[in-house]
Amino acid sequence: xxxxxxxxxxxxxxxxxxxxxxxxxxxxxxxxxxxxxxxxxxxxxxxxxxxxxxxxxxxxxxxxxxxxxxxxxxxxxxxxxxxxxxxxxxxxxxxxxxxxxxxxxxxxxxxxxxxxxxxxxxxxxxxxxxxxxxxxxxxxxxxxxxxxxxxxxxxxxxxxxxxxxxxxxxxxxxxxxxxxxxxxxxxxxxxxxxxxxxxxxxxxxxxxxxxxxxxxxxxxxxxxxxxxxxxxxxxxxxxxxxxxxxxxxxxxxxxxxxxxxxxxxxxxxxxxxx
Amino acid sequence: xxxxxxxxxxxxxxxxxxxxxxxxxxxxxxxxxxxxxxxxxxxxxxxxxxxxxxxxxxxxxxxxxxxxxxxxxxxxxxxxxxxxxxxxxxxxxxxxxxxxxxxxxxxxxxxxxxxxxxxxxxxxxxxxxxxxxxxxxxxxxxxxxxxxxxxxxxxxxxxxxxxxxxxxxxxxxxxxxxxxxxxxxxxxxxxxxxxxxxxxxxxxxxxxxxxxxxxxxxxxxxxxxxxxxxxxxxxxxxxxxxxxxxxxxxxxxxxxxxxxxxxxxxxxxxxxxxxxxxxxxxxxxxxxxxxxxxxxxxxxxxxxxxxxxxxx
Lengths: 274, 312
Fold this sequence. Notes:
Low-confidence stretches of chain B: 1-13
Order of helices and strands of chain B: HHHHHHHHHHHHHH
Number of strands of chain A: 0
Distance between the termini of chain B: 61 Å
CATH architecture of the largest domain in chain A: Orthogonal Bundle
Domain ABC transmembrane type-1 (chain B): 87-299
Largest sheet of chain B: none
CATH class of the largest domain in chain A: Mainly Alpha
Transmembrane segments (chain B): 24-49, 91-112, 124-144, 150-169, 176-196, 223-243, 250-270, 276-298
Shape of chain A: globular
Membrane topology (chain B): Multi-pass membrane protein
Order of helices and strands of chain A: HHHHHHHHHHHHHH
Oligomer: heterodimer
Number of domains of chain A: 2
Main location (chain B): membrane
Structural class of chain A: mainly alpha
Helix content of chain B: over 70%
Radius of gyration of chain A: 24 Å
Distance between the termini of chain A: 43 Å
CATH superfamily of the largest domain in chain A: MetI-like
Radius of gyration of chain B: 27 Å
Strand content of chain B: under 5%
Subcellular location (chain B): Cell membrane
Helix content of chain A: over 70%
Number of helices of chain A: 14
Mean pLDDT of chain A: 90
Mean pLDDT of chain B: 87
CATH topology of the largest domain in chain A: MetI-like fold
């Protein structure tokens, strides 16, 4: 390697490591604060002198995060399969069947994507009260189990499935439902994984709707529990807030490490190909 | 059970076929659509229509009724200096975030597009903020910004401030400080969009530029940036649409303060909702919707132009 190339590479790595400090640094600082013992100062020395998991335990026990964790898990675990099912059902005729009203339905669904949530949150709040969905898991789940974005994403995926595969299934005597389930659905699996990830991220970290709809602390999700905990944002609470923040992030980290390549291709699926 | 259809078939093949067409071809697509239409209609369509209606009433959410007041709600918000403050803050926020969102992720993408060892790891590390729940990101940054936090220390060290300063509580810096959180969170996402664009640039363009003796900077400005125009358009429009809806990072760090310095349109709507002025909130929401539709139409126009360019 020529010396010029070598120094160029050195600079490149230095720059990339500097950027890493900017993107990962905040997590490390938060983790370090979360691991400081009660007697240690929050700021000052960055590394904890006597690293401890005490704050994580008190977040779970005293600050009720075990309950919030459970609530968030229930809502997310139910929202993902239901959203995949309903969106993949709805997207199929919009991509593959000719029927009256198809273009109207498609246009209506797509146009709702640009409506800001803040426009209709007040009527929605009233509706959830009338339907008895306030302070319920169902009230949080229903908002996630059929999304215009998901229908749009899956429709694009079905459009890429070769028609011949379905036609041969029809010749074998299968009905539309069977063709959807046995032929089309397995072929859009990567998009289903992408949508599962989007649903997970959207539901796990959702803030505004749970904030409005869950007034009773027994139905708080992690986001709301964390936001409530941070209302007292001072020295006495910062270690607990840090620990709770790390706890809230860990599941998304685990899923990210597990499904990395889908995350990366999903970003462009939603934007570039859409 | 098995025999009857055969008999029927013998009587009239035509009517049986028509019957099948009606029960099958007509109903089947709607059966697929049913769950989504019910849910979207009830929890999306109906509240949107209600918001339209409420914006022309003086709706009382507790009573559940309201009188028709025409355009009075719109007149009220257009006469409200806090509304204009919120609109200006929304525009300022976009003015800060847009150039940063367009250029920083582009540089990151160019870096992680190199064929060097360990580059995949850097991609993942740059993507981490994207997967962080926004509530967590907002609270982490609130800690970093605090008077004893690392950012105040760096600013003190650089001599920008004489005493430790929390950028979030100064009205001159609060909006910039909040924008930084938005930019930080989106870096990795937009980087991936640029990366996809970069990987579609043919390599021989660079090779011939190298033979002509082009420098790294020349290659970046003369080849990379022009070839990335479609991605730049996409990132810009996504930033504008997302930026108009910015909420969590503001609500959880400054709450719209100090003295309204970070109250954006969405924060304005949220405050009206909290004080139960739901008709005003609905009217302001409609204004936001009109702006969002404008941005989306811009997107469609630009992306269809992009497709024409690609076809040509």
